[in-house]
Each structure stands twice: as structure tokens, then as C-alpha cells.
User: What shape does this take?
Amino acid sequence: MSLKAFHIFFIIVSILMSFGVGVWGIYYHLTFGNVWFLIIGIGLFVIGIALIIYGINFMRKLKHVGYL
Assistant: This one.
């Protein structure tokens, strides 16, 4: 596995984890009413969107490099 393929895999896992924990934070805010969980949830959604933008830019920049 090349460094590019590992990097793409790591970005995808990070996006999924950030959205997952973001959903968890919003769920706990709705369940317990704690504002910090809402802040965590929204912050992780913003991080997930930033990771998507980063992933797209990374793919454009290294489109000429092979995966193996």
C-alpha cells in the first residue's frame, strides 16, 4: 500500500469518525441538555467538512501519482 493510498484511507476514516462523534455529541445534548455536547457535535461536523475539502484538494494535487 502506497503512502497516497494510506493517506486517503486515513482521511476517510477521520471523516467518518468526526461525523460519528458529532452525531453522538448532538444526541447527548438532546438527551441531557448539556451545551458542551452541542459545541463538541457542531465542532466535529465542521472538522468533518474541513476534512472533506482537504481530501478533495489532496486528490487534485496528487492525481498524477499512482496508488501502488
Q: What stands out?
A: Residues 5 and 67 are 5 Å apart (CA to CA). The chain is about 85% helix and 0% strand. The helical segments are 3-32, 35-61.
